[in-house]
Amino acid sequence: MTSATFPASEPKPSWTRYFSFNTDAKVIGIQYIVLAFFYFLIGGLLAMIIRGELITPAADLVDRTVYNGIYTMHGTIMLFLFIFPVLNGLNNLLIPTMIGAPDMAFPRLNAVAFWLVPIFGTLLIASFFVPGGPAYSGWWSYPPVSIQNPLGHLVSGQGLWLTAVALSGVSSIMGAVNFVTTIIRMRAPGMGWFRMPVFCWTALAAQTLQLIGLPALTGGAVMLLFDLVAGTSFYRPEGGGDPVLYQHFFWFYSHPAVYVIILPVFGIFSELFPVYARKPLFGYVYVALASFIIVGLGLVVWVHHMFPSGVAQWMRNLFMVTTMLISVPTGVKVFAWLGTLWRGKLRLTTPMLFCLGGLFNFVFAGITGIMLATVPVDIHVSNTYFVVGHFHYVIYGAAVMGVFAAIYHWFPKFIGRMPYEGLGKLHFLLTFVGANLNFLPMHPLGLMGMPRRVSSYDPEFAFWNVLASLGAFLLGVSIIPFLLNMVSSWVLGPRATHNPWNAIGLEWLLPSPPAEDNFGEHVPTVISRPYGYGLGQPLVENQEAIERELNLQEARA
Amino acid sequence: MTSTTPPSGSLAPHGEGGEGHANHSLTGFVIFLCSESVIFLAFFSGFAVLKTSALNWLPAGVEGLEWRMPLINTIVLVSSSGTIWLAEVLKAQGRLWGFRALWLLTMALGAYFLYGQAVEWSGLAFGFTSGTFGGTFYLLTGFHGLHVATGVLLMALMLVKSFLSGNYDGGEEGVQATSLFWHFVDVIWIILFVLIYVWQRH
Ligand code: HEM
Ligand SMILES: [Cu+2]
């Protein structure tokens, strides 16, 4: 009786919609991702300059103060203009389609949140061209360095930096309100909490963290801005202020920010491993719930970034324990993925390779992370390259690889064409080798005592630095097959069917690409848990009819 | 039977997602308020840290804060929370004019609060840059005052809307949200009053 007529995917909407104030989450998602990769290239170029400088012990490529500006901007661009926007792009594409909603809860707010990104991005990039150059106090922007304005201009690199970060906070809050409301209120009939895909669980957890953490950073940044331009003394010891207070505000957000980045990547792993191992996700309920245990614990570990600053001994011990506790829910997830892979029929497609590589790097980073959590080790290696190596393993090795996996996996769904496997595998190989060659040597360097944020170093560090720089250049090259693949398959790639990977999920019951309002009036009723691989039970009512209809449509096209 | 009418069978079990998005606004607004309260929490805890650790909290030449005016303001703001609640009750009973009168009264009380704040500011012997005392004082009261002003504006908007025909047909989320916001602003002020005026320190 239920008619399974679908609005056929629209005949060629104009590409100009990607440059307009469009309110379709699928358009906004692609806008986010493309823009994020534009900034990724800029941030990557800065990384190449950093590694070019560090390939020799002497400071010979750029000036010392220029170097400070470069690593500050590299960190800031990579975080606020690449990784957060790219993840918000995935949220936009995946949340509505995975839960069967026609769009976000607040489509216009969604578009405003997106268009703020190029605005504050332009402000941030513009700071390269103001007198005095860009901000140079590191991506965490600690006072007292960050409240000095030696040239006395009203518009300084640091001022632009603070404005951009505050705007990024506003944009992210708008996004978070939207994502959380959408997940809470707009799920398909029958999709109870424990029938929701893990990606939505992790997105919900990550966005909850944004909502709790970001206001603290924004508040702290506003006070910093006043210290910088209005002459207040919130963080100035001379006026009774306290620079450590800023560190609390900053890390209260920026530690959770690490989970804002990694949680959706956990979600991606949890989605993809079952598809390519052809098995249900092992321990689905625990994987889902662990996300919220991570949220709870993630909010009470921030002081571990301040062990070397003046904090009381009891605080150090307390935060050391909470930091170690967080490895428990994280470990639960890792074991669930291993359990999923165990005796699975692994299909080593490009997305699967990126997931496996990402998991490998993440486990490695977890080990160095636990080392860092112990207070004596942390005080020994803090501000050395050990830390830089550790967090790049998390961010590049795990998070960026996870993002690539997601892009290759869902590209057919939202673009409607298949990416090329050969180029994809080349991309994976270069990325995996490049990342390890780049970031592994940073660990021995840190243990030997090489400080971070220096443009020259003792010649005894030369060997590992040369290796790291070669790895970095390899990473630089790795982006070429990726871009080539994206552009050529978007234009010429073979047409994708509605479910090329044989995956289970609401989004795979839509045509590729989906119509503007996704399921429109015909939202299917969910009748079983996700990831029923090999169990033979349908995900939704009338699944056969829906699939028959989609196949028919594809045959006709 | 034109082809645009969907077959009746397909409309049957249509759960939450179906009817427009209007009913999500309140959810979204509550989520936003929770987030907004964290920024106040950050300012409050920063204030407490700076106040307890200061060697000389009051800048030279400042005796402390005059509390009578702020106390009147507190009473005004707390009672406005009562009037806005009453306004909502009247509206629920369908007495639209009563609602409008009390709504307007609430706006007037809010405006009076802002006026009182301005009078207090203009009579003070210290400024934004007078140490952490002056900085936090203006930061906290200013940021809160901004919220009061926003609240009054929102109320004005809702008042205008109440005269438009067909208003409130699709629910009354704007009124609910505004009133929620107003209670929020009120609670923040009470905490702020205790921290700034009641808690004495030299
Ligand atoms: C092409 C790959 C990359 C290379 C070669 C690279 C290299 C580096 C190096 C050598 C530093 C240390 C600079 C110093 O302390 O002197 C650094 C810092 C940093 N990187 Fe990367 N990076 C890469 C990608 C990323 C990505 C993808 C992210 C984040 C999404 C990121 C975030 C950061 C941050 C936050 C810092 C700290 C900046 C600071 O000290 O203030 N990096 N990077
Ligand atoms: Cu941390």
Could you walk me through the main structural features you see in this protein, from its secondary elements to its overall organization?
- The complex is a heterodimer of chains A (about 550) and B (about 200).
- Chain A has 16 helices and no strands.
- Chain A has about 550 residues and is an all-alpha fold.
- Chain A has one domain: Cytochrome c oxidase-like, subunit I domain (Cytochrome C Oxidase, Chain A, Up-down Bundle), CATH 1.20.210.
- The N terminus of chain A is likely disordered.
- Chain B is mainly α and about 200 residues long.
- Chain B contains five helices and no strands.
- The interface between A and B is large, with 50 and 44 residues.
- The complex binds protoporphyrin IX containing FE and copper (II) ion (CU).
- Protoporphyrin IX containing FE binds next to helix 1, helix 2, helix 12 and helix 15 of chain A.
- Copper (II) ion binds next to helix 6 of chain A.
Secondary structure class of chain A reads mainly alpha
What is the highest CATH level, the class of chain A?
A: Mainly Alpha
Q: Biggest sheet of chain B: strands, sense, closure?
A: none
Low-pLDDT stretches of chain B are 1-22
Average pLDDT for all residues of chain B: 86
The major pleated sheet of chain A works out as:
none
Distance between the termini of chain B: 81 Å
Average per-residue pLDDT of chain A, rounded, comes to 93
Assign the structural class of chain B, choosing from mainly alpha, mainly beta, alpha/beta, alpha+beta, or little secondary structure.
mainly alpha
The number of E-state strands of chain B comes to 0
